[in-house]
Amino acid sequence: MLSLTLAWFVFIYLTIFLAGILVLWIGYEMLRKYLSSTSSSQHFLCRICGASLTKPETNTILSCPSCGSLNEYNDQGGL
Ligand SMILES: [Zn+2]
Question: Do both 44 and 56 map to the same domain?
Answer without folding.
Answer: yes
